[in-house]
Design a protein that fits this description.
heterodimer; A: 198 residues; alpha+beta; 5 helices; 5 strands; 16% strand; elongated; B: 659 residues; Methylamine Dehydrogenase, Chain H; Immunoglobulin-like; 2 domains; six-stranded mixed sheet
């Protein structure tokens, strides 16, 4: 039992392709709400760019000595598109090989890839939130402004929300479905081995 | 099989959407309680409980609202010209805006002080400061008009002003910008530390007629003086000023003036200063400043340039000035109704320090000094501190007080009002403001006897609160009731210009004294026309003086001929009405200034310099009667060389009979 059922090989092949959409949509978003900003300020992270209210956010952050957010802060932007394309190719390889073990390693790779991405995001956030200009106008002792990796955090008068955007949702949904396919095959295998045992 | 797959896809999708929506914040609540409308409602025909005198900021004016309705009654022209009321355009009011820099037609009015007797509102005058070209104005609360403007010499911008002492003995003026002064003024800007100085001026107020005079100035280190409050009760005789930029930066202050952990609250013993002045210790300095007074009998202003001021130097005169460390660029500096506590609001600080006057006296007595700052003793922070309000909010700015021992502090960054108890410094309530409150006002809040009942927030940002009007939005006030344990939002209302500080005073202290008309028999205007018989036109070279009367519904004269190109025509219009609420207006085509709006019994003058020949209409602009639209006339302008005689008439004949 190391074969993926043919119709799932087709499905895996087809599901690999939506990852290409990630190149054309925002991947992650950070939303900031404050009393003065009831409509919210948004930063959208694309695979190679930052969009949204970056200039307004930078203007506010300079009071507390945070560095200006810019594309140059993210060398990762150079390589993300290759990583995405590699994952598409790997998905197709899984489909073509039709072997469950290949799917397993693909899932492992996706999992650690995602984990590494979050770690990388955390590392950037830590650096961004802690490396403050010592001459900043507002210095609150012991306070740093690290944005949340995922979820909500209160930063002075701002409520910050860090959440997946369309791109990340596509990755999450595709990966989840791959996992479901893998589990389904394990279940099939389990059932058939029980059946042959009896 | 397929259905399992599709159900799974569907399920996963729904799950993530749920997570995504659950994480989003809820929208801002308007938070208006059920009975708010009733509490802010003043039925048509009924009066408000309080007058709210509100600064106009960059409009240079003051505005008058009713509380609790938030209805706007009047905009009082002060430092900025106002063509509607001809303020700064009529010949009578032009001198009011005269300064040592000449005619300055605009300013930035930040703060209001209502006169007090024994620390309690007396409803006589309102004072306002000019932040740009340093001045103080006094508004008479019987006429709601600016009666006096005094320029402040040795000042770079009059921000910590016009705060007053308990009996309105003095109104103060502290310079926001320190500048080089005393002759040596053309110096490099980066020689700030050596050459720049600050001053605070104590301006005496005549207790009978309110006339202001600079009694003395105190020469101080070059820092920025921000806000101030007089001591009261036990601390009467002292004055407290917040100061920032003790770093003495002259550029990029947002960074360079925010470096020290503590700046100062300055305590001035003005009784001691008075003693030094009496003892002849003050030095006379040559300066130049304008003193402008409006006389209600001649209906005219005069401007006098003065040249001398007395200056006290605390480096040589000890016991007069002390500094108290106060965290991070203090802004508000407010004394509580008992005069015992002084609240400093470091706008970048994480706590609100509250100083004790008793401890200040003790520390001075024991010489409990931390250091000296430019020759002035700095008291030990811990020695003068009553305590700190912990975790109050972000960006504290100003504090007002009620009559029950509570303080109300505005927080710009966290956009809220925080109510705290003075005795134990605990926070008891907080309400959001929409958005970014600056000043706030409790009726009588700065006095010994707060009237309480409401707190009014003056907000800097309105964004989505009102119908938008392009990029420039209205600023706003918000009314909260404070008579219960919890503050409750009652009303939003838009405001004129940018409101900074405001005061509110019970209507009963002002309303009965309100002037209805000016008596004609008291009109001492040199060009008054006290009856239609006196109407005339006189030529003096190229100046033509028209002595004109107005009464429902005609001018005398209303036909004038013989004006020539190059003439300066002065229309001196007297409103002969002696009835309440019957002003007349006067406008003439092509006038390069404004209209006149003349109150009953008053005389006002408009200068007209026609630039072409022809016949020019003039008319009344204030709808005065059913025949208002008939209240008009003509002026004929002929070439300079013409022989048209100077004649004037009403009703086709020379005006010979009085009505």
């Amino acid at each position: 039992m190391n074969k993926i059922l043919p119709k799932f090989r087709w499905l895996i092949g087809i599901l690999s392709l939506p990852l290409l959409i990630v190149l054309f949509v925002p991947i992650w978003r950070i939303d900031l709400f404050a009393p003065q900003y009831p409509e919210g300020l948004t930063m959208k992270i694309w695979h190679n760019d930052l969009k949204g209210d970056i200039d307004i956010i930078n203007g506010l952050n300079h009071y507390i000595g945070m560095r200006h957010i810019s594309v140059e802060m993210f060398p990762e932007f150079e390589i993300i598109k290759y990583v995405i394309i590699i994952f598409v190719i790997l998905g197709l390889i899984v489909a073509i090989s039709g072997r469950l073990i290949v799917l397993f390693w693909y899932i492992v790779l996706t999992f650690f890839g995602g984990l590494f991405t979050l770690y990388d995001f955390y590392r950037w956030g830590y650096e961004y939130g802690h490396n403050l200009d010592p001459t900043a106008a507002i210095k609150v002792p012991g306070l740093s402004y690290q944005p949340p990796v995922i979820g909500h955090k209160r930063l002075l008068n701002f409520d910050a929300y860090s959440l997946p955007d369309i791109g990340a949702w596509i990755v999450i949904i595709v990966a989840s479905l791959f996992i479901l396919i893998y589990i389904y095959h394990l279940w099939l295998h389990h059932k058939s081995s029980k059946f042959s045992a009896s | 099989m397929k259905s399992i797959i599709f159900k799974s896809i569907f399920g996963v999708g729904i799950l993530f959407m749920l997570i995504a929506t659950a994480c989003k914040p809820k929208g801002m609540q308007t938070a208006v309680q059920g009975d708010a409308a009733v509490k802010a409602y003043v039925p048509p025909g009924q009066y408000d409980e309080f007058y709210n005198i509100v600064s106009g900021g960059f409009s240079g004016q003051m505005s008058v609202y009713g509380i609790p309705s938030g209805r706007l009654f009047r905009v009082i022209p002060v430092f900025s010209v106002d063509p509607e009321k001809s303020w700064g355009f009529s010949e009578e009011t032009k001198p009011m805006l005269n300064t040592s820099h000449g005619f300055v037609p605009w300013d930035d009015l930040h703060h209001i002080a209502l006169s007090t007797t024994d620390g309690i509102h007396d409803g006589r005058w309102a004072f306002g400061n000019a932040n740009n070209t340093p001045r103080i104005a006094r508004i008479d609360m019987t006429t709601f008009r600016t009666n006096e403007i005094l320029e402040i010499p040795n000042s770079g911008g009059n921000h910590s002003s016009p705060f007053i002492t308990e009996n309105t003995e003095y109104v103060v003026a502290g310079t926001r910008f320190s500048i080089p002064m005393d002759g040596k003024v053309d110096v490099p800007i980066n020689s700030y530390k050596e050459n720049f100085k600050g001053t605070v001026s104590f301006i005496s107020v005549d207790k009978n007629n309110g006339t202001m005079n600079i009694a003395f100035q105190i020469l101080l280190p070059g820092v920025n003086f921000d806000l101030a409050r007089a001591g009261k009760g036990k601390s009467h005789g002292w004055f407290f000023f917040s100061c920032y930029n003790s770093e003495q930066a002259n550029t990029l202050l947002e960074v360079n003036a925010s470096q020290k952990d503590k700046d100062f609250i300055m305590a001035i013993n003005w009784k001691k200063a008075e003693e030094y002045v009496t003892a002849g210790k003050a030095v006379k300095k040559t300066v130049r400043y304008a003193h402008n007074i409006y006389d209600e009998n001649s209906h005219s202003a005069t401007s006098e340039i003065k040249n001398e001021v007395l200056v006290l130097d605390p480096k040589e005169l000890p016991g007069m000035v002390y500094f108290m460390p106060c965290p991070k660029s203090p802004h508000g500096c407010d004394t509580d109704p008992t005069g015992e506590y002084i609240v400093g609001s470091g706008k970048l600080a994480a706590v609100i320090p509250v100083f004790s006057f008793t401890k200040i006296l003790a520390a001075i007595d024991q010489k409990n000094f931390d250091s000296e700052y430019d020759g002035i003793p700095v008291l030990k922070y811990d020695a003068v501190l009553h305590g700190e309000v912990l975790k109050p909010g972000l960006g504290p700015l100003h504090t007002e007080f009620d009559d029950n021992g509570f303080a109300y502090t505005s927080f710009f960054v966290s956009s809220e009002i925080v109510k705290w108890k003075i005795s134990d410094l605990t926070v008891v309530d907080r309400v959001p403001t929409y958005y970014s409150i600056g000043h706030l006002c409790v009726p009588g809040g700065p006095t010994k006897k707060p009237w309480g009942k409401y707190v009014i927030a003056y907000n800097k940002i309105t964004k989505d609160r009102y119908l938008p009007t392009g990029p420039e939005l209205t600023q706003s006030a918000q009314l909260y009731s404070i008579d219960g344990d919890k503050m409750k939002l009652l009303l939003d209302f838009p405001t004129i210009g940018e409101p900074h500080y405001a005061e509110a005073i019970p209507a009963e202290l002002i309303k009965p004294k309100s002037v209805k008309i000016f008596k004609l028999e008291e009109n001492k205007h040199p060009y008054a026309t006290l009856g239609e018989k006196q109407a005339k036109v006189e030529r003096k070279g190229n100046d033509v003086h028209v002595y004109m009367s107005s009464i429902r519904s005609h001018f005398v004269p209303d036909n004038i001929e013989g004006i020539k190109m190059g003439d300066h025509v002065y229309f001196h219009v007297t409103n002969l009405e002696q009835d309440w609420d019957v002003p007349h207006g006067f406008a003439v085509k092509g006038a390069n200034n404004a209209e006149l709006l003349i109150m009953p019994g008053e005389t006002q003058t408009l200068l007209w310099e026609p630039n072409r020949t022809g016949v020019f209409p003039m008319y009344c602009t204030d709808f005065c009667s059913a025949l208002h639209q008939e209240m008009q006339g003509y002026i004929r302008v002929s070439p300079a060389s013409s022989n048209v005689p100077l004649t004037f008439s009403t009703g086709a004949k020379m005006p010979q009979t009085e009505q």
